[in-house]
Design a protein that fits this description.
Bound molecules: phosphoenolpyruvate
Strand content: 15-25%
Radius of gyration: 17 Å
Number of helices: 12
Order of helices and strands: EHEHEHEHHEHHHEHHEHEH
């Protein structure tokens, strides 16, 4: 079965609740699509107003992070169950900014992935290499390590339903996009890794996005690659251009 393209916006730490509602209104007609799944991954405080603002549209709401514990004394954290109850369907796990600035390790991300599934959320699991790693020719070794560690104990059926985002760190927010060949090569490498860990059917089903300076002019070529099933989009998801990316 053909995989459905999925384009998700990562708003990062942008948009106050009132700005968020305004943006949803501005993008509403531009992001309409029958063929592409559209997700807005928004800051925690924007979740409730955004869920309300996109009601009746084709847009689904995602969170940018979550904690793996059920509840209790974890000041400042938000649980998977809280997200689910608020109307969230997707959650970004392991974005490079969280791995880097907040020191989230693969062991923690593995717990988050499993907890997200338990709560009925779809993880968008991020992976990607630094420029130094690319230059040392260890890109695929590094990414395979991330994928294998983050998916310990995750079943084939769960993997079939999830999303993996390949985001080279050097391409995020830099305006420097990976070449189509580089992006396709790594996304295929991730699919091969899933086939080795699970089976061919699981590898065939899992959706793999590319992320890193996706914009209205490079989306079509990137998303047209055989192993790239859409994108995780930062900067350009906050502008009307996001509509062009969805309808690439
Ligand atoms: C991201 O935040 O995941 C991202 C890819 O950002 P940008 O599109 O701005 O590079």
């Amino acid at each position: 079965m053909a995989r459905k393209t999925i384009v998700a916006g990562n708003w990062k730490m942008n948009m106050t609740p009132s700005q968020a509602v305004k943006l949803c209104e501005e993008l509403k007609d531009l992001v309409k699509s029958d063929t592409v799944d559209v997700v807005y991954c928004v800051p925690a405080i924007d979740i409730i107003p955004v869920v309300e603002a996109v009601k009746g549209t084709n847009v689904k709401v995602g969170a940018e992070n979550m904690y793996y514990e059920e509840k209790g004394a974890y000041t400042g954290e938000i649980s998977a169950e809280m997200l689910k109850d608020a109307g969230v369907e997707y959650v970004i796990i392991g974005h490079s900014e969280r791995r880097d600035y907040f020191k989230e390790c693969d062991c923690m991300l593995n717990k988050k992935v499993k907890k997200a599934f338990e709560a009925g959320l779809t993880p968008i699991l991020c992976c990607g290499e630094s420029l130094e790693q690319r230059e040392m020719n260890v890109t695929m070794d590094w990414i395979r390590l991330q994928i294998k560690s983050d998916l310990v104990g995750v079943t084939a059926d769960q993997v079939k339903s999830m999303v993996i985002a390949y985001e080279p760190i050097w391409a995020i927010g830099t305006g420097k996009t990976a070449t189509t060949e580089q992006a396709q090569e790594v996304c295929k490498g991730i699919r091969d890794c899933i086939a080795e860990m699970y089976d061919a059917a699981t590898a065939e089903a899992v959706r793999i996005q590319y992320g890193g300076s996706v914009n209205a002019s490079n989306a079509a070529e990137l998303f047209g690659q055989p192993d790239i099933d859409g994108g995780l989009v930062g900067g350009a998801s906050l502008k009307a251009d996001f509509g062009k990316i969805v309808n690439f």
